[in-house]
Write a structure and sequence with these properties.
- By secondary structure, this protein is an alpha+beta fold.
- The protein has a domain at 1-45.
- It contains 2 helices and 2 strands, in the order ββαα.
- The protein has a two-stranded antiparallel sheet with strand order 1-2.
Length: 73
């Protein structure tokens, strides 16, 4: 019987994911609802923005770890 809703593939619709034999967590794909979450963009028929990572070239510049770690402080 088709109801028009999809079941979450990650948790099987239960909303709970098993981490190991004694640990469980709320499914992050459906946020415990059992159905995939639609973004506001999908509801409005708008495509999600592209991050541009697929087409960008990797940078091959040397990285100075001392400089980058001092900036992080």
């Amino acid at each position: 019987m088709a109801t028009g809703t999809m079941t979450c593939r990650s948790c099987g619709g239960s909303g709970i994911q098993r981490i190991n034999d004694k640990r469980f967590r709320t499914c992050l794909d459906c946020l415990g609802q059992g159905e995939p979450i639609k973004s506001h963009n999908q509801e409005l028929g708008m495509p999600l923005p592209a991050l541009g990572l697929q087409n960008s070239a990797a940078r091959s510049e040397p990285l100075n770890a001392v400089v980058s770690s001092s900036v992080a402080k």
